[in-house]
Amino acid sequence: MENYTGSSKLYTSKLHQFDNLPEPRNATEEEQEAFHSNNSYDFHIPNNSLE
């Protein structure tokens, strides 16, 4: 852990290590099409929310 002080503020950074994670992979074309063809998005913005 390292501490940095500047302009009367204390900044702390932590380094996290994660082990045994699977290798990252890109989605296949079929997976992307299935994701984007899911039309379950139901966005509703009431008119009075823009005032």
Task: Describe this protein's structure.
The protein has 51 residues and is of the alpha+beta class. It contains one helix and two strands, in the order E-E-H. The chain has one helix spanning 29-36, and strands at residues 2-6, 9-13. Strands 1-2 form a two-stranded antiparallel sheet. It is flat. The chain starts with a strand and ends in a 15-residue tail after the last helix. The model has no long low-confidence stretch (mean pLDDT 77).
Outline:
It contains 1 helix and 2 strands. With 51 residues, the protein is α+β, with helices and mostly antiparallel strands.
Structural key phrases:
flat; 51 residues; single chain; 16% helix; 20% strand; alpha+beta
Which regions are unreliable across 5 or more consecutive residues at pLDDT < 50?
Answer: none
| Average residue pLDDT | 77
N-to-C span: 47 Å
Radius of gyration, CA atoms, in whole angstroms: 22 Å
What is the number of beta strands?
2
Following the backbone from N to C, one meets helices and strands in this order, namely EEH
Biggest sheet: strand arrangement: 1-2
Portion of residues in beta strands equals: 15-25%
Task: Give the overall shape, derived from the CA principal axes.
Answer: flat
Major beta sheet, specifics?
2 strands, antiparallel
Helix percent band: 10-25%
**Class based on secondary structure composition and strand pairing:** alpha+beta
Summed up, the helix count is 1
Write the layout of secondary structure elements.
Blueprint: E1 2-6, E2 9-13, H1 29-36
Antiparallel strand pairs: 1-2
